[in-house]
Design a protein that fits this description.
17% of the residues lie in helices and 65% in strands. It is an alpha+beta fold. The protein has a single domain, classed as Quinohemoprotein amine dehydrogenase alpha subunit, domain 2 (Lipocalin). Strand 1 and strand 2 form a beta hairpin. About 11% of the residues have low confidence.
Length: 121
């Protein structure tokens, strides 16, 4: 009996985490200050299990999201940016809280920035 209850609990928790993971699909917007001035971004996320893909779009264009992962309420991904002829790796780590994601983004070896992305409804 105990094993059945434990198994049912684990399966329910797994199903809930998978449903939660899928809930970030779609568009998210963020506006924040950087060393090069104010930035406006639109992120579009697609989730398949724990894999995250999509795009990051700003006034300089659109880039593909790579190395995207979802682990519970934590999302990580990389945006590769070309700026003044230099390729820059931007690493994101975010905590999902409903319709907001609190991100820390590490911009190469130059800066670390905090931002909040909000779901587009």
């Amino acid at each position: 009996m105990f094993r059945k209850v434990l198994l049912a609990t684990l399966l329910t928790a797994f199903a809930c985490s998978m449903a939660y993971a899928a809930s970030i699909d779609g568009k998210w917007k963020a506006q924040f200050d950087t060393q090069i001035g104010p930035q406006s971004y639109t992120y579009e996320f697609h989730v398949d299990g724990t894999k995250v893909t999509g795009t990051a779009t700003n006034d300089r264009g659109q880039t593909q999201i790579t190395e995207g992962k979802l682990d519970g309420n934590t999302i990580t991904f990389v945006e590769s940016l070309s700026f003044d002829g230099n390729d820059i790796r931007i690493e994101y780590t975010g905590k999902i809280n409903g319709d907001e994601i609190e991100f820390t983004r590490k911009v190469g070896d130059f800066a670390t920035e905090e931002l909040t992305a909000k779901r587009v409804k």
